[in-house]
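Exercise 7. Given the components listed, write out the predicted structure of the assembled complex. Treat all entries as one system.
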Amino acid sequence: MAVLWAGPWPHAWPRGWAVPKRLAVVDPGRCVDCLLCALACSRRFGEGGLARSAIAVRSVGGVEHGFVVIVCRACPDPPCAASCPVGAITKATVGVRVHPERCIGCRTCVLSCPFGAVHWDEDNNKPVICVHCGLCASFCPHGVIALEEVGGG
Amino acid sequence: MDKALTRVLRIDLTKKRTWVEERPNLFEKGLGGAGVAIELLYELCPKDADPLGPENPIILAVGPLNPLFPLASKAVAMFKSPHTGNLGESHCGGRVALALRLAGFGALAIQGKSDVPVYLTVHRGRVQFRDARALWGLSSSLTAGRVLREIEPGSGARTILRIGRAGERLVTYANVIAETYRHFGRLGLGAVFGSKNLKALVISGTGTIPIPDPPRYQKLYRELWERATRSDHMRKYHDLGTAQNIRPLNQIGALPVRNLSATRYNEEPAFSGERLAEGFLGRRLACSACPVACIHLAILREPHPVEPYFYKTTFVSYDHEPLYALGSMLGMESPEGVLKLIDSAEVWGLDAITTGVVLAWATEAFARGLITEQDTVGVKPSWGDTQAYLEMIRRIADRKGELYWTLGQGVRAASEKYGGQEFALHFGGNEMPGYHTGPGALLTYLSGSRHSHLDSAGYALDQDCLRAGQNPPPEELACRLFAEEARRQVLSSAVICFFGRNLYDWETIQTALGVLGIEKSKEELMALGAAILRQKYAFKVREGFSLEKLTVPMRAVETPTPLGVISEDYLRKALAEMEQLLRGDDGLAGDA
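Answer.
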C-alpha cells in the first residue's frame, strides 16, 4: 500500500481529505475482559479464535485489578518499522503495514514495541499488527476502544 | 465440523502420561459439552467408582459454538460427585471454554492419582506435569492463583483452574476456582482434584477455528450481538446482575430466610442488588465471548483493627445465590458481613451455596441443642453473627474436629449423625438453592440431573404461574420441566450460557450450527436434548439413584411458598410422571 504521509501528523489535514482515524484505547478502566475485540479481529480473516488477532486484553495482576488493552497506537515514528532488518514493515497513513512476503520471521519487531502490540501469528510465523480498521471497536459493548481522528483537524 | 473440536486430550496422573484421541463420532453424536461429557463419563467411570478414588475421571468439554458466538462462553465438567455420590456436572464461565477450544481440544479427561502434588499446564497443545508441592497447603486459593499467574505463560488467553484448602482436604463441596470469582461449583469437583493430588490446571490457547461460510457467519454474529446487547431480557444480568432477584423474591415471600424458617425480611435486605450496587459495586467482568458482563464485584473497605487511617480493600464477587446462602439463609443484616462470608468461601475454596445451607443447619441444630459448644469448639453460631460464621467456615475447610469434619460432608451427612433431618435442606444430597417459589422449584431441585435450580428452572415457571394465577396439575408441571431441562441439554452441549436461553431459541441454535456446517433439524435437536437427559438419568440409576427413594425435607413442604404450602403428595405425583419421562416411556427417542 502506498504511504500517503510519512512525517509527523499535520496540525490540519488537507481540506477535502477524509481525516484518517486510528484505533484508540479510550478508557481501559471500563474493560470487562469479554475479548469481543480480539475475537472480532480474527473474524476479519473469516476465521474464529485468536490466532491472527492484533488486539489483546490482559489483566493487571488479576481480574479484580482491571485490564490493559494491547494494540498498536499508530506511533508517528514507529520503532517496529525502523527495527525490521528486511523492510517488511513500512509506515502507513495510520500505523504500519506488514509485507509478509518480505518477512523472515525474526521477531525483532516484537522486541521493538514497548507495548507488546506486535502480536505473533504462530501458524505462519509472521507479525500481526493492527491496521486501524475499527471493526473491533464496533463490537466493544462498553466504549473501551474507539476510532478517533488523528492529528486533530 | 472443525477437526480440532473432536480431539480429546487424555491425561493419566498415575503414570504421568498424556495422549490425544480423535473422536469425530463422539462429537457427531453428542454435539459437544454435556452431550459429549456424559458419553465420556459412561466410558471412563467404572460402575460404583469411589468418587475420591483414582478411577473417577475428571472430564471437561466445550462445544461447537464456543467461543464463536455471543454468550457461547461456558465449559462443562463431569465426574462422579463426592458430595451426592452420583452424577457430578458443573458449568463454568471465565476463560475456560475459550482456552480449551483454542488450545485445540474439544474435551479433556484426567484419570489416576499423582504420587506427589502436581499442577498441569497445557500450552501450545502440549501437556506438562509441574511440581505443586510448594503450592499445597496454602491458606488462600487466591495466593495459588497469583503465583501461577506470574510463573505461567499465556496471559490474556488462558484459564487458571485451582483448588483451595477445602479441595485439598476433600470437603465434598469444594469448588474449582477459575480466574478468581468463577467456579466449577456445587458438586465437589474441587475435592476430586484434591483426591488426585492435582492443585491446578492451566490451559492457554490462541488457535484458529475454521469457518466454512465466513460471510454468513459474520452476518449472524452481528445479529446475535445486536440482540445480546440491546434486548431487555439481557438487561437484568447486565445492570444489577443476578443479585437483582433478592428484592422481588423478598417481596413475594420466596427468599429462604434463617434456614427457611421464613421467606422474607420485613424490609428490603441491605444486601439486595440495588443496595449493593449503590454502596459497594466497584467493577464488572465478563466471561470470554460474552458482552453482558454479569459478574459484579463489590469493593469491601475494611479498617485496620488498631491503626487509624489504614484500610484494606478487597474485591468480592456477588450473585443471587451466595447472597441468599451466606446472607438471608443465615439471617444476616449487614452487607459487609455477607461480603466477608462470600470472600471467605472463595479464599478456602468452598461452594458458597452449600456452605451457607450447612451453616444454617448448624445454627438451628445448635439452638435446639443437637450440637453443643463442645462440638463447635466454643463457637456459638447465631443468626447474623459474622464472626462466628467466619470461624466456622475456616474450621470446615480445615476439617479438624468431628463436627466440622462432618459439616464438610454437607447437611445430609450432618443430620444423619446429629439429627435434625426435618430441617436439613438438601435434595438428593445437594443443598437447597435460593428460591422457595413453589412446586416448580422444589421439583427442579428433586428431579434435575444436578439437583440445581438451573437444571429446569422451576423457579421461573413458578413465578409465571403466580403472575398468571395458574396452578398446574403435577403431571403437567413434570412435562414442562422435562421439556425445559431437555432443551437446556442442547444449550449446554453447544455450549451456551443459560442466561442466553431466550436469545438462543431452537431456530437460532439451528442457524448457528448450520453456519458451522452442522446441519440439524429442530426435531433432531429436541430429540438430542431428551437423549442426553435420559443418558444422564441412566448413569444416575446405574450408580444407585432412585427418584422414588428421594426424601423431601419437611421444612420445605411446611414453609409456605407464594403459591401456598406444597404437599408432599403433589411432589410425589410429579416425580412419578418425571420418572416415566426420564425412562423414555413417551415414545421420544432416547438412550435410557
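Discussion: Strands of chain A lie at 21-25, 47-49, 56-59, 67-70, 89-91, 96-98, 119-121, 126-128, 145-149. Residues 1-10 of chain A have pLDDT under 50 and may be disordered.
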